[in-house]
Amino acid sequence: MQAIDLLQILPELILLLVICFILLVTPFFSEKESNDDDIFFTPKAAGFAYQVTILTLLVIAVMFASRAGDLPIRIMNGLYIIDPFSNVLKCVSSIAVMVTLIYSKQYLIDRQLFRTDYISLVLLALLGQFVMISGANMLTLYLGLELLALSTYTLTAMRPNYQRGIEAGMKYFILGALSSGFLLYGMSMIYGATGSLDLDDILRTTSNDAVMRLVLSFGLVFLLAGLAFKLGTAPFHMWVPDVYHGAPTSVTLLIGGAPKIAAFAITFRLLVGGLQLVDVDWQPILIFLAVCSLLVGNLTAIAQTNIKRMLAYSTISHMGFMLLGFLCVYDELAYSASFFYAVTYVLSTLGTFGLLMILSNKGFECETIEDLKGLNRRSPLLAFIMLLLMFSLAGIPPTVGFVAKLSVLDALVDAGYLGLAIFAVMASLVGAFYYLRVVKTMYFEEPTDTTEISGQGFAKGVLTINGLFILLAGIFPAYLTTLCLHAMRTSLQG
Amino acid sequence: MILSLAIWMPIVFGLIILGSGSDTNKSYVRWMSLFAAVLSFVITLPLVTDFDTANAGLQFVENVPWVQRYDLAYFLGVDGISVWFVVLTSFITVIVVLAGWEVIQDRVSQYMAAFLILSGLMIGVFSALDGLLFYVFFEATLIPMYIIIGVWGGKNRIYAAFKFFLYTLLGSLLTLIAILYLYNATDTFNILEWHNAPLNFKEQFFIFLAFFVAFAVKVPMWPVHTWLPDAHVEAPTGGSIVLAAIMLKLGAYGFLRFSLPIAPDASLYLGPFIITLSLIAVIYVGLVALVQKDMKKLVAYSSIAHMGFVTLGFFIFNQMGIEGGIIQMISHGFISGAMFFSIGVLYDRMHTRQIADYGGVVNAMPRFAVFAVLFAMANCGLPATSGFIGEFMVILGAIDYDFTIGILSATALILGAAYSLWMTKRVFFGKIENDHVAELTDINSREFLILGILALLTIGMGVYPKPFTDIIHPAAVELLKHVAMSKI
Known about the structure:
The structure holds 2 protein chains of 2 kinds.
Chain A: H1 3-8, H2 10-25, H3 44-66, E1 73-75, E2 80-82, H4 84-110, H5 116-134, H6 138-156, H7 163-194, H8 199-206, H9 213-231, H10 239-246, H11 249-256, H12 258-274, H13 279-302, H14 307-324, H15 332-359, H16 375-378, H17 380-394, H18 400-414, H19 418-443, H20 457-475, H21 478-493
Helix pairs in contact in A: 2-3, 2-5, 3-4, 3-5, 4-5, 4-11, 4-12, 4-15, 4-20, 4-21, 5-6, 5-12, 6-7, 7-9, 7-10, 8-12, 9-13, 10-11, 10-14, 11-15, 12-15, 13-14, 13-19, 14-15, 15-17, 15-18, 15-20, 15-21, 17-19, 17-20, 18-19, 18-20
Chain B: H1 2-19, H2 26-49, E1 59-67, E2 72-78, H3 83-99, H4 108-127, H5 131-140, H6 142-152, H7 157-186, H8 191-195, H9 201-218, H10 227-234, H11 237-262, H12 264-290, H13 295-314, H14 319-350, H15 361-364, H16 366-379, H17 386-401, H18 403-428, H19 435-438, H20 445-463, H21 466-484
Antiparallel strand pairs in B: 1-2
Helix pairs in contact in B: 1-2, 1-4, 2-3, 2-4, 3-4, 3-11, 3-14, 4-5, 4-6, 4-11, 5-7, 6-7, 7-9, 7-10, 9-11, 9-12, 10-13, 11-12, 11-13, 11-14, 12-13, 12-18, 13-14, 13-17, 13-18, 14-16, 14-17, 14-20, 14-21, 16-18, 16-20, 17-18, 17-20
């Protein structure tokens, strides 16, 4: 390995070192006895780790952002690829994790989860995402995926004396392990058919006719089943609502936020980077997954009274929508539309779960739709932000969610999938209903609990910026769309 | 610049007012809103005074790139068809702010802000010349209206708000696909280029239908009109005024801006179909209005019947019809606004909208009765009121197109007179049966001012419609010339 390689992965290295540092240094802190009456009690070690983490994530995000224009290079014997695509995605996922931590600080303190092991697991999950985003080899991708998955399994079950979390963690672990098995099995078949784990090699081999199509197709099916598990698309979505519901909200956000970007990246790397030439095999499957997800996600979400479950089903439908962009093969505009969709979806999700955490307090979980009753009375600002986020998820202009839906639909119409496009908009009509219901609860109903929502000024500030970003990026989407397109274009050329 | 100011000024003021938050300083919020509304009305006036009637094309054009990736442009401009609606929107906003002055005591800043933002967005719809920009404004208007109906509405407001939102969204989502299809066919979102885009009949047919769904829901045409009575009945007075006076016009305007020029052959082919629907709206919905017990519902059905006249006028493809339709839209803006405001005046005092609860109001509120009777007359198209001009022109056009259709459409005048006057009779005249009616106080100066302005406009437009027709005429001629040219 050359020194230049190390320089290229400097942000990842910094992250790894910080994790080690946190784990090594924080045991030396002497902790005050926890006192239940003191609501501002913060464990010292975790507080320190938290501050270091926020700072590190900020630095890393800036580093990725400054590299967003670099030309693509492959390092470590082609195992790892650094290109504008990965830099942009990594920048967004570091910001997403940072924002998640900011939102969840008080929530974690209230639930005795504000611990150094929690924070370091979060960072390990992020590292896993980085590896996933940059993997140029099936093994690297798998490695990143497992690092992410194992960290999140643990995080889900981590809350002490919380049975639902443990149950969700078990479910997540078993189904996740199963899907990893599928994925690995698929990879091994593809390896068998093409003789390589390197995505570029696979692309090259599949272009010649000598390759064993049967084995390749079988491998592809398993690979897609595994991916669908990880993305949480129907009919492999069973774990999503249970895990979203069972996990502490902060962990729900860690699962439902940043990792969706990594999931998008791994789908892109595998399907477009490696298997683009056999698109006739994976396209019908993808259509099936997308249509199922849009149907199941939107229809089932209507029946939910728990907002976390509702958002889980909404995630399923959004992942389905994102997959639609992959249907337009060889179309960088379509890929960049999906890219844009993933990024904006994550930004909207951050805000919604962030709000739920801000509204929760000690001994009270804000998780049913009823808990949002009359929010407009209690805090007009938070209600307005939530309104923007809901309309963004529903895809109503002038929010950024509309631009995202628009770009995917445009790609579909362009590629001649008119029927699918009409199906997709009809599904979003159904979707609009349950997002509207949240707005209804906040605005049209009177609160049962009229206490003011106090404290957490910093988290509220970030939430406000998050919400306004959703609005402003919807009105001025030019920069973000161009960035996505540019990143996609340079990466595909490289 | 004028159009941009007209769009963004109320929105920015709306956000400022929204930011002032709680209900602690209501009078500040009210005066600030009135200032914003009047200011934005004054800003739009030059659009009419400086309008060049010799020019049939677009004026006050602004065109800057918006999103280059999709070749989207922030492209604004008005022609003779749209210019009056921009002014009408900003004018109605002033009325609405005044109408909610004392009635709204709860969350005043949000109420006023919603209407100001809505006003800016609707002006955006009328002046957007970029297909997607139009769509963004068109859809964004749903958000404030949803909130207005849901927060300040009546008993059944939640149902009405959902119905309103989802119905309209259903239509507009299909339109989005049509817009994207046009974009992919022409590589631009510029509406003017779409007008000249060659499209074969099949493409035109489906594009027409996709647009039709959205606009027909918005107008609303029979049989997709059912959301409107619900929305009207539940909405607060201000919401009803905006809904009837302007929001319904967004759909009719869409026909003129999109359906007719982009798909002329399909429009001609489907013309008889639309005419049939319009006649059903005029006659059947007119009959439905006759049997309503709720005043607001009655006026809501009467709006549907009047809008039927508008679509009828558009799809008989002659100059009288189109100009008459546009005149009818403007006049209906004044009259329906005034009617809903009058109902609001009664409702604020009696808290009921049932016709049966009234009777003999004229004894308690003589000044108010003068206005109410005037607007009821205007609503049924009495000559020398603005209601007459539009209906007369459309009927003339219809007779020119087909005598039977002309006769059928003319029955609307009878039906209109029947339901308007019968309601007036039952509410205002006769003996006082309800003790509460005897205790009614007559309108105060604020209400007098609003009704007075609207009455002046209604009569003024009815007596001397030339300024309106002068501006509309060249654009209508141009549109007809365009529709007459086949694209196939």
